[in-house]
Amino acid sequence: MPELPEVETVRRILEPQLAGRTVGTVEVYNEQIIAHPKAELFMALLQGQTIQKISRRGKFLTLHFESGDRLSLHLRMTGQLLVMPKGEPLEKHTHLILSLSDSNQLRYIDVRRFGRFWYFQKGETDTLTGQDALGPEPTDPILAADYLKSKLGRRKKTIKEMLHDQTVVAGIGNIYSDEILFVAGIYPGAKCDALSDADWERLASAIPEVILWGIDADQMTPEEYLRGKGKEYRNAEHLRVYGRAGQPCPACGEALCRKVIGGRSSTYCPNCQKAFPAGAGSLQVKSQGDNQA
DNA sequence: GGCCGCCTGAGC
DNA sequence: GCTCAGGCGGCC
């Protein structure tokens, strides 16, 4: 379900509810969500661990224990993480419950069961959030135009697809790639090797701007979070283009278009995000074999 | 590059 | 009944 801003919202809500608590019994109702190690060992290792803090890297959350062990997870499409009192009725599709020392429970609910948990013991290499697995955070100063250009400038894939590559930038998914490209004024189907220096500049500044804006717009109280069962976020109504095909562009009023790009539904403004911007004509010269008018 | 699998549910 | 969904890995 969530992208970086939503995962950060979950982290901020849960940290004060989890820090300092010790894990008691561990109940796994569906072993397929446990990616590492085997469910039996996973449960045994987890029991008795005291939670120090929760961090986020890209779309991954990590519970850090005082022992030095860590529990990392990814919510994928429909994962929900909730802290609630032991007596509350179980939501359908609850797959994991950790009882906490304050008589609350940390519950993992996931309709589609795409989400995954990994437990790493102290000293064990984290294969998920290491440097070769995840690129910089969107707010990392390294993410300037020259970084993007040197990393992507020769690629023939679309810029939208490359923004989804977690090794390039961590945390961007289908909503925020559309939002970022709208703010940057770049057509989502533009090939990376056709982007100009000015495009890379606007993209570099749009990435942190839009992500920070998303985190800010997501802010909510723990009560609101629980009421929305951890799946309703506040920013949806503020998104500029995502899910708004047919509606007027917030900048120019033209109807927003929807198109499948890189296999993902994409929404953009045909006027503000031109597929062939003026001045890019020389980039459209095709070799003879391509001309099949 | 595109397609499929993994899953269930919402909306049409 | 069909299509689609905010993710990601794998396959050809």
From TrEMBL:
<dbReference type="InterPro" id="IPR020629">
    <property type="entry name" value="FPG_Glyclase"/>
</dbReference>
<dbReference type="GO" id="GO:0008270">
    <property type="term" value="F:zinc ion binding"/>
</dbReference>
<dbReference type="InterPro" id="IPR010979">
    <property type="entry name" value="Ribosomal_uS13-like_H2TH"/>
</dbReference>
<dbReference type="GO" id="GO:0003690">
    <property type="term" value="F:double-stranded DNA binding"/>
</dbReference>
<feature type="domain" description="FPG-type">
    <location>
        <begin position="240"/>
        <end position="274"/>
    </location>
</feature>
<feature type="active site" description="Schiff-base intermediate with DNA">
    <location>
        <position position="2"/>
    </location>
</feature>
<keyword id="KW-0326">Glycosidase</keyword>
<comment type="function">
    <text>Involved in base excision repair of DNA damaged by oxidation or by mutagenic agents. Acts as DNA glycosylase that recognizes and removes damaged bases. Has a preference for oxidized purines, such as 7,8-dihydro-8-oxoguanine (8-oxoG). Has AP (apurinic/apyrimidinic) lyase activity and introduces nicks in the DNA strand. Cleaves the DNA backbone by beta-delta elimination to generate a single-strand break at the site of the removed base with both 3'- and 5'-phosphates.</text>
</comment>
<dbReference type="InterPro" id="IPR000214">
    <property type="entry name" value="Znf_DNA_glyclase/AP_lyase"/>
</dbReference>
<dbReference type="InterPro" id="IPR010663">
    <property type="entry name" value="Znf_FPG/IleRS"/>
</dbReference>
<comment type="similarity">
    <text>Belongs to the FPG family.</text>
</comment>
<dbReference type="GO" id="GO:0003684">
    <property type="term" value="F:damaged DNA binding"/>
</dbReference>
<feature type="binding site">
    <location>
        <position position="155"/>
    </location>
    <ligand>
        <name>DNA</name>
    </ligand>
</feature>
<keyword id="KW-0479">Metal-binding</keyword>
<feature type="active site" description="Proton donor">
    <location>
        <position position="3"/>
    </location>
</feature>
<keyword id="KW-0862">Zinc</keyword>
<dbReference type="GO" id="GO:0034039">
    <property type="term" value="F:8-oxo-7,8-dihydroguanine DNA N-glycosylase activity"/>
</dbReference>
<feature type="domain" description="Formamidopyrimidine-DNA glycosylase catalytic">
    <location>
        <begin position="2"/>
        <end position="115"/>
    </location>
</feature>
<keyword id="KW-0227">DNA damage</keyword>
<dbReference type="Pfam" id="PF06831">
    <property type="entry name" value="H2TH"/>
</dbReference>
<dbReference type="Pfam" id="PF01149">
    <property type="entry name" value="Fapy_DNA_glyco"/>
</dbReference>
<keyword id="KW-0456">Lyase</keyword>
<dbReference type="Pfam" id="PF06827">
    <property type="entry name" value="zf-FPG_IleRS"/>
</dbReference>
<keyword id="KW-0238">DNA-binding</keyword>
<comment type="subunit">
    <text>Monomer.</text>
</comment>
<dbReference type="GO" id="GO:0006284">
    <property type="term" value="P:base-excision repair"/>
</dbReference>
<keyword id="KW-0511">Multifunctional enzyme</keyword>
<keyword id="KW-0378">Hydrolase</keyword>
<feature type="binding site">
    <location>
        <position position="112"/>
    </location>
    <ligand>
        <name>DNA</name>
    </ligand>
</feature>
<dbReference type="InterPro" id="IPR015887">
    <property type="entry name" value="DNA_glyclase_Znf_dom_DNA_BS"/>
</dbReference>
<dbReference type="GO" id="GO:0140078">
    <property type="term" value="F:class I DNA-(apurinic or apyrimidinic site) endonuclease activity"/>
</dbReference>
<dbReference type="InterPro" id="IPR015886">
    <property type="entry name" value="H2TH_FPG"/>
</dbReference>
<dbReference type="InterPro" id="IPR012319">
    <property type="entry name" value="FPG_cat"/>
</dbReference>
<feature type="active site" description="Proton donor; for beta-elimination activity">
    <location>
        <position position="59"/>
    </location>
</feature>
<dbReference type="InterPro" id="IPR035937">
    <property type="entry name" value="FPG_N"/>
</dbReference>
<protein>
    <recommendedName>
        <fullName>Formamidopyrimidine-DNA glycosylase</fullName>
        <ecNumber>3.2.2.23</ecNumber>
        <ecNumber>4.2.99.18</ecNumber>
    </recommendedName>
</protein>
<feature type="active site" description="Proton donor; for delta-elimination activity">
    <location>
        <position position="264"/>
    </location>
</feature>
<keyword id="KW-0863">Zinc-finger</keyword>
<keyword id="KW-0234">DNA repair</keyword>
<feature type="binding site">
    <location>
        <position position="93"/>
    </location>
    <ligand>
        <name>DNA</name>
    </ligand>
</feature>
